[in-house]
Amino acid sequence: MNIIVCIKQVPNTTDVKIDPVTNTLIRDGVESVINPFDVYAIEEGVRLKERFGGKVTVITMGPPQAESALREAISVGCDEAVLVSDRKFAGSDTWATSYTLSCAIKKLGEFDIILCGKQASDGDTAQVGPGISTHLDIPQVTYVKKIEKIENGKAVVERMTEEGYDILETPMPCLFTVVKEINTPRMPSLKGMMRAKSAQIVKWTAADIDCDPQSIGLDGSPTRVVRIFTPPPRKGGEIIKGDAAQVSQELVQLLKDIVI
Amino acid sequence: MDYLFNEQQKMIQELSRKIAQEKIKPVAAKYDESEEFAWDIMKIIAESDLFGVYIPEQYGGLGGGITEMCIVTEEFSRACGAIALGFAGTGLGTFPILLYGSDEQKKKYLTRIAKGTVAAFCITEAEAGSDAGSIKTTARREGDYYILNGTKQWITNAGEADVYTVIAMTDKTKGARGATAFIVEKGMKGVEFGQKEKKLGIRASATREVIFTDCKVPKENVIAREGMGFIVAMKTFDSSRPGVAAQAVGIAQGAFDEALSYSRKRVQFGQPISSFQAIQHMLADMATQIEAARALVYATARMIDAGAKNVAKESSMAKLFASDVAMKVTTDAVQIFGGYGYMRDYPVEKYMRDAKITQIYEGTNQIQRNVIAANLIKESIKAE
Amino acid sequence: MASITVILNKCTGCTLCVRSCPFGAITMANKKAVIDMAKCTFCGACVPACKFAAIELRKDAVGTKDLSGYKDVWVFCEQKKGVIQTISFELLGEGKKLAKKLGCKLCAVILGHDIESKIDELAQRGADKIYIVDDPALKAYLDDPYTEVLVSLIEEYKPEIILCGATVIGRSLVSRVAVKVDAGLTADCTGLDIDQKDKLLLQTRPAFGGNIMATIITPNHRPQMATVRHKVMKEAEIHKGHKAEIIRKKYPASVLRSRTSLLDIVEEVEETVNLSEADIIVSGGRGLGGPENFAMIKELAKVLGGAVGSSRAAVDAGWMPYSHQVGQTGKTVCPKLYIACGISGQIQHLIGMQSSKVIVAINKDPDAPIFKVATYGVVGDIFEIVPALTREFKKMLKK
Questions:
Q1: DSSP state letters, B235-291
Q2: Which pLDDT does position A121 carry in this prediction?
Q3: What's the CATH code of the domain at B112?
Q4: Least confident among B119-128, B197-206, C166-175, C326-335
């Protein structure tokens, strides 16, 4: 089985601090990590390989530094890695990003399943996964929480919904975006880390992936960011003092209108 | 401080730190409370290949030595000194085989341990603590077997481990020269375990009696040869003490990390307490002591890995110094936390409880001083 | 192609731009600003930040395409089992405002089966026109037929703006539609407005978990599509008797075919209310000390008719299932009332709940960061205060 996992490198939000004076993000010293949701996609890809054989190819579009995210993916069991990187991709929105990745995936050749995290923690759009499946014209299931079975070219999966879950059957090749419930990602192994260190990363530029230059980067992006601002920080409010009985009574009075 | 670790050692450090922070730390308080053995964590450690860091490559390990074992122990202990002991106690149980085992024994047991089989070392008895010469457990030769009888006490990993290295008397009349080391497997007839001990600290570590009642052990399971038991045990301790020292350094570092971060957040008299010199000097002393202990640990580990023959003095020094530092630093960390530090909701009191054992086990610090002094005198006589 | 350049003789090395860049793309080298093109997204935040006009940003010319044929504001109205989801009413409320500013019609789009009876409901919520596609193939949501039908409608009727809920269905559907019709799509908006000059939809959304806000436009493509976060906009009021023009459409099997098939819909009966729908959430954290103490959190939630949340620490320790986790890698919630008990307030947690209307924090550590976002803070022992609070609420609610 040929499995492709799409990942994104994002700043580690655990480390992100807000400058109390300027009220902007402090980026200095913030480590880059694999988007937390993509970690589950990687794990699921490696598990599928362990169940059905085949290989897992991990792919990312991003700056050259994103190579470290690909190596990390190899350390937990991915076999091959592709970095799609070019200054021409700068300014891509989700439309252009999913187009670019779909071009790269076409170049990779035959595949059975594409896995993505449900969304990235820096943008939270959840649009790139469905975008890729649309550009490739393959079926998708979003918010997958379990891959129940795969046989005869079809997969049965559970899609998380607001009320519970749907059980869907889809022919392959197909694309799934996965949620955190799907598995518990493993830790890398030392042998995996050693393999990751020496692994060859395939690097493709815009010229390598047969894409329409009008559809990539800022030119290929229908949306434009016109303003970036920091919302006023929420102010800490009133501290209520007294013993348990006093504070409870006061709180109940203050919250009366909301609760009733 | 840079200890000039090589690439592989740095990788081991990175991975064990990741496991410690992401997997061990969130459950440390839970296991301390429930006093359960953290099998889920052991599984993670096994799958990460870390159980094999000090085992030679031909037996499925990564071919490292004491340095690698210390790196892993320190990082794990920084998150939880008790869960770390599942790993470090296995090291102690493995050293007799690693140092003196035959090729067959190594093939049979080290390959399993490298994959995550937990091991334990059994020497201590009710009446044989520091005075290991008064061991009462006996091993009587009967044809191709030895019959073991007796009770080992306070055995780390007992009940959880599958492989036990046991010191028993094959000839009481010969005193220390009458002891022999055996490999005993859980599941062999005549091996039972006592109740789990209730302890002050390292509560997630399993400590039990191991009871041998006419336990039949094949003669192939003798380590080295009959009568070598004490030498096996002493050399085992020489190799394992840096591990205890690394555990102590990790515990101290973990408590220090908490204290430093708390001192920057805790505001009194309108400013963080880290701005008070009284606190600053405490932090400075703690950090300096930890670094000195760490330096001693890795210098000793390197010496052993380089093949030094006599390391008893250095390894005792490392264990003695690091464990005393751990006790001091964890106590100070509680002090910096003030009243909060004394509460079980905050993590520092656990570090303090966990630190105490490092001054006691694998030879009390008083015994370590004896070893150091005896070696100093021996060296001085030799030099004359 | 767009370009951005630092005019070196104007740059004074003041570093103002470095701080203004939300993507960390600007560094200083030899006392001049250098832009890392791999990180730059041409957002333009640095341009006004520079006091010396040393940064020049050239974006592509806007308005080369004829977009005049596109008109009206559409709201995709999500239904499940024939019940219109409340997010749709929120979108109709917001859509009305936008339609007014543009001087166009507000249209509801509804796909499903046996949904004829929903027409009045949508009309009463202010829809001027309702596109309805009623077919057994559309009974429950499936990516393929819903995408194809919506695409066909868009291509035929050319709406200017399409709004959709940022729900599981909404996000899956319009992401596909936007690619198919070559439209711009902005996810998870919390603010919408019309630019008076260019008549463009201004879409404001949080990024980096709400630490920064971005306003996004779609200058050159139509429709302008946005998914909108639940519970941010106000529901449209009901006007009895308000009528709408109805457009019923039928599509051939080729449009309605689905590659995936729905085998079953499973509803999980939760003890308490669904977190993202809840108006009141009571959450517990590490301060609870153990799983058994969640009982008092559940009790308070039950009295208030709210849902139970949890911090990541409590989930990681195995005290609560992941489905209750609030925060960055859990759920983002914005209830009317959020009560945080024994939660210190790590940034990942704050990201998930700081847009709640009223936040009450109970924690024994007066320095806990949660107090920085709390409307009301109580420094004290949760084991005393939470039960006391439960008693008081019971008394007031006469339960």
A1: HHHHHHHHHHHHHHHHHHHHHHHHHHHHHHH-EETTEEGGGSHHHHHHHHHHHHHHH
A2: 82
A3: 1.10.540.10
A4: C326-335
Q: How many domains does chain A have?
A: 1
Please tell me which of the candidates A187, A190, A197 has its beta carbon nearest to residue B12. A190
Check pLDDT > 70 for residue A26. no
Tell me: do B96 and B206 sit in the same domain. no
Domain count, chain B: 3
Domain interval for residue A32: 2-227
**Domains (ranges, CATH) in chain C?**
3-58 (3.30.70.20), 73-253 (3.40.50.620), 275-397 (3.40.50.1220)
Residue B2 domain flag: no
Q: What is the mean pLDDT of chain A?
A: 91
Confidence of residue A21 (pLDDT cuts 50, 70, 90): low
Contacts of B8 in chain A (CB under 8 A): 194
CA torsion through residues B237, B238, B244, B248, sign: positive
Last residue of a domain, one of B84, B118, B152: B118
Is there a contact between A226 and C221 if contact means CB atoms under 8 Å apart?
A: no
Residue in chain A nearest B18 by alpha carbon: A187
Q: What is the CATH number of the domain that holds A31?
A: 3.40.50.620
Beta carbons of B351 and B254 less than 8 angstroms apart: yes
Of B227, B244, B262, which one is at a domain's C-terminal end? B227
Reduced to 3 states (helix: H, G, I; strand: E, B; else coil), residue B364 is coil
pLDDT per residue as tens digits for the range C163-200: 999 999 999 999 999 999 999 999 999 899 999 888 89
Given a contact cutoff of 8 angstroms between Cβ atoms, the answer to whether A73 and A45 are in contact is: no
**Domain match, B247 and B331 both:** yes
- A179, A160 Cβ separation under 8 angstroms: yes
Residue C39 contacts A where some CB pair is shorter than 8 Å: yes
**pLDDT tens for each residue of A62-78:** 999 999 999 999 999 99
Contact (Cβ atoms closer than 8 angstroms) between residue B119 and residue B157:
yes
Catalytic residue flag (residue B362): yes
Clarify whether residues B61 and B167 are in a common domain: no
**Judgement on whether residues B195 and B262 belong to the same structural domain of the protein:** no
In a domain, B1, yes or no: no
Name every residue whose Cβ is closer than 8 Å to that of residue C30 and which is 6 or more positions away in sequence.
none
Give tens-digit pLDDT for C303-317: 998 899 999 888 888
Q: What is the pLDDT of residues A165-201, one digit of tens each?
A: 999 999 999 999 999 889 999 999 999 999 999 999 9
- Interface residue C277 vs chain A (CB under 8 A): yes
Mutation for testing the A interface, residue in C46, C328, C378, C394 having most A CBs under 10 Å = C378
Residue B264: CB atoms within 10 A of its CB come to 14
CB contact under 8 A, A191 and B44: no
CA distance B245 to chain C (A): 29
B316 vs B175: which has the higher pLDDT: B316
Dihedral sign for Cα B148, B154, B157, B158, please.
positive
What's the pTM value of the predicted model, to 2 decimals?
Answer: 0.84
**Distance from C-alpha of B340 to C-alpha of B352, rounded to nearest angstrom:** 14
Residue B88 lies in a domain: yes
Domain membership of residue B134 (yes or no) is yes
Q: Using 50, 70 and 90 to split pLDDT, how confident is the model at C299?
A: very high
Of B78-82, C65-69, C282-286, the one with minimum mean pLDDT is: C65-69
CA of A244: which chain C residue's CA is closest?
A: C385
- The alpha carbon of B161 is separated from its chain's Cα centroid by a whole number of angstroms, namely 14
We report the CATH number of the domain holding residue B296 as: 1.20.140.10
* Same structural domain, B202 and B76: no
Identify the pLDDT of residue C56: 87
CA A234, A240, A244, A246 torsion-angle sign? negative
pLDDT tens digits for B79-109? 999 999 999 999 999 999 999 999 999 999 9
Instruction: Say whether both B156 and B35 belong to one domain.
Output: no
Q: Which residue on chain C is closest to B27 by alpha carbon?
A: C317
Whether A87 maps to a domain, the answer reads yes
Domain span including residue B192: 120-227
Residues of A in contact with B19 (CB under 8 A): 187
User: Span B344-367, mean pLDDT?
Assistant: 95
